[in-house]
Amino acid sequence: MSNVHPYVGRAQPRVDGPLKVSGLARYSAEFAADDLVYAAAVPSTIAKGRIVRIDASAAQSAPGVVEILTHENRPNMPAEDEPYKADMVAVPGGPFRPLRDDRIWFSGQPAALVIADTHENARHAATLVKVEYEALTPEVDVSNARDRAYDPPEKRNGIPPPPPPRGDAEATFKGSVIRLEEEYRVSAEHHNPMELQATTVEWDDGRLVIHNKTQGVNNPKNYVCSVFGLDPEAVQVSTPFVGGAFGMALRPHYDLTLAVMAALKLKRSVRLVLTRGQMYTMGWRPDTLQTVALSAGEDGRLTSVRHEVIQATSQFEDYQEPTVNWSGLVYDCPNVTLGHKLAKVDTSTPSDMRAPGATLGMFALETAMDELSYKLKLDPLELRLKNYAEADQNDGKPFSSKELKAAYETGAERFRWSKRSPEPRSMKEGRELVGYGMATGCWEAMMQPHGASAALTADGRLEVACGTADIGTGTYTILTQIGADAFSMPIEEVTALVGDTRLPMAPVEGGSWAAASAGNAVRLACAALKEELVKRARGLDDSPLANASVDHVVFRDGRIALASDENVAVSYAKLLGAAEGGRIEAMAKFAPDKEFAEKFSSYTHSAVFAEVRVDEELGVVRVERIVSAIAAGKILNLATARSQILGGVVMGIGMALHEETKWDKRLGRIVNANLGEYHVPAHADVKNIDVIFVDEEDDANPLGVKGLGEIGIVGAAAAIGNAVFHATGRRVRHLPITIDKLL
Amino acid sequence: MAQAQAAATSVTLTVNGEPKTLDVAPWETLLDLLRERLRLTGAKKGCDQGQCGACTVLVDGRRVNSCLQLAVMRDGCEITTIEGLGGPDELHPMQAAFVKHDAFQCGYCTPGQICSAVGMIREGHAETSDEIRELMSGNLCRCGAYTNILDAVEEVLAERNAPKLEAAE
Known about the structure:
The complex is a heterodimer. Chain A is an alpha+beta fold. In chain A, 23% of the residues lie in helices and 25% in strands. Chain A has 16 helices and 31 strands. Chain A has a seven-stranded mixed β-sheet with strand order 3-5-1-11-8-9-10, sandwiched between helices. Chain A has a five-stranded mixed β-sheet with strand order 14-13-12-7-31. In chain A, strands 17-18-26-27-30 form a five-stranded mixed β-sheet, sandwiched between helices. In chain A, a hairpin with a 6-residue loop joins strand 23 and strand 24 (569-571). By secondary structure, chain B is α+β, with helices and mostly antiparallel strands. Chain B has one domain (2-168): Beta-grasp domain (Ubiquitin-like (UB roll), Roll), CATH 3.10.20. Chain B has helices spanning 2-6, 30-37, 82-85, 93-100, 110-123, 129-135, 146-168, and strands at residues 9-15, 18-24, 56-59, 62-65, 78-80. A five-stranded mixed β-sheet of chain B has the order 2-1-5-3-4. In chain B, helix 4 (93-100) packs across helix 7. Chain B is globular, with a radius of gyration of 17 Å. Chains A and B meet through helix 1, helix 3 and helix 14 of A and helix 1, helix 2, helix 3, helix 4 and helix 5 of B. Chain A: This is Xanthine dehydrogenase family protein molybdopterin-binding subunit. Chain A: Residues 142-169 are annotated as: Disordered. Chain A: InterPro entries: Ald_Oxase/Xan_DH_a/b, Ald_Oxase/Xan_DH_a/b_sf, Ald_Oxase/xanthine_DH-like, AldOxase/xan_DH_MoCoBD1, AldOxase/xan_DH_MoCoBD2, AldOxase/xan_DH_Mopterin-bd_sf. Chain A: Residues 22-137 form the Aldehyde oxidase/xanthine dehydrogenase a/b hammerhead domain.
């Protein structure tokens, strides 16, 4: 076993795979508890107004009903906003609080909570709660709220507002011959992870163990402790598995608040599983109106870029995402003006959804760039190369690494981009028009402070742990790989733990920062454990390693040995035998290198190429193949990394062709709040996807990792839309590109 | 409460080879019975209205959305859930192929995908990649593992067909 190859960099199968494929991975709604009662939320049938009266008498006498909570009889909650801002992903404004008062802010808002002995009885009784409303006329269409758009007075923490203008984009644009100005719109989307939003609260004599669908267990813990005034020692959040989230489970949702409220009131264990329809009453990718104006010289060099967005938000919070900033850094241009405004609608607050901001902004920019390429009669790829940015002009810093050129080249070659005939409508096969399109993707490579631990356990195994989450990203597996490499151990002898507040502190898992942050934290914890082991080995009576230091020993085959003579060694078993509890543990904290971040900008990049087939008579678009070439630093696991990109591309196909949350504009109610009418890509929508990782060395962190969760989706929809234009000659600037827009 | 008990009906199901006799309310779905009463949480609830396929189990060998089945309708039936196909240490070939091809990410749709794929192969209509894509389209995967799922299903299908081809030669 001494010649274990490094696991990092391989296509290592998921360590949690066997549990997941055999149905034994437990998600938040699947934990058993004695004396468990079931809750069901009663959704508001109006989108705006007030509750006048609630008649719960019929529900109260329905079989099995234990309790009905409304704003009139709920336990006391803090009146001010501050305690609710314990949510580490809170946005400016007043956070939503279920059952706060009689006010209705959005359709489907919970108006009451019914708790009963069985799931069926709770659900039935919920239908018997009669709520009378005083309804006002809602506005849910951002385009009608355009005139009321405003600059958010308070900027969202962690989200860079648009940089100040550089040069004079307006004057340059006016003086240009080659120019375009268009409005782009991406319809509202919902995350729709497969797992329903759910919370199970296990009540154990005042101590709570909470299983809540979340992208970071510490967030719901801090939130409920703050809101309900609970002792942090008496609250544990444990969510080992998350059935997809895509940003939806960053913030605490009302399932958490209501389930904990009910458990505290009843002093019993409570389960609240939201319905698929209720999952449309929380975070969503905001509807946006974007204006992009570009001008260029005859040589194809951009002379000005203006990108402005009006983004929907709720009446009670100023949600913001980085939508336009990309247009100031992806291409080299001296004159740039960027703007981000909000407009309020009567909906729930939007939230981060896979590559928030970038997905929307890069769709607009990359579609406009495609349009510009036709005006210039330049190959779209050639146009990108002519305007390649060697530095981040928003921040005036060089990139820590940027192998986007290599991504363009290898992607184009794999795709056979050179076979593209430049004219729209010039390629055909059978009765279908064929189109080739491409786009660039970009996402910031972020990191966050994370804690981690590494331990040798009594059975000689290595256990690495971090309070981050694995939402399907592969975190369990990469942390296991890093641990196995640190100790040259077979991967089967390493266990990774995530998703529990008893583990070292980590923030929410999002923004593609988990691999770099948790990965480096575990790496440091393993180094600290090695120090600890050597220290203990040195301290043994008559230790053969009495003078050894960590630099002069090797760790393998269950022992610490001198590098110069591996026969001189101390076994882990000996150290464990002498250790209290038969366990030796070390902790470490990782923090991003601030000095490095002051000198360099760090981004991941992609080059996306798409081939579509369009049946003109039927208006049906098929995505025949996608090549996604990614420059994202070191790849820890080729299998899970590839899957991240595949998933992003598939969601990009949905964004381009299918996904659209539709409101009844009169009632303010979502009319397709289900998986039958909100179409997410299905098997038959997805054909060939080719993922390429180009070599990229980056020094922003010791592992050289940049993160992959977001980059796969960025640019995918633009590449598909550009291919549809190439096939048909029809430019659709409002996603999704549904049949009606092509016929 | 009394009302609910009065309405209960005795049902016998064979679940993963074990006979189970239970009193069920007439409105109790097979999915809720599996998840809440028998603690077989491998069958997942993704929509509760037959639109996502996460709850797919095999009923008398046929793939079925268990959220659309009332438990009382299946008295006397044989139910196979993902737990009955194979455990972590003795995976069914389809389960093993899913792990090998990284045919899932979050894992939530996975039991349904696997039961559906096993049922689909048994139906005998899937030969080409396009047919598999079409016949698996009732099982949504929001993580977008479709191409990997296809690879896994094709591998199992090829292994299954291999002996037949040899015999034909």
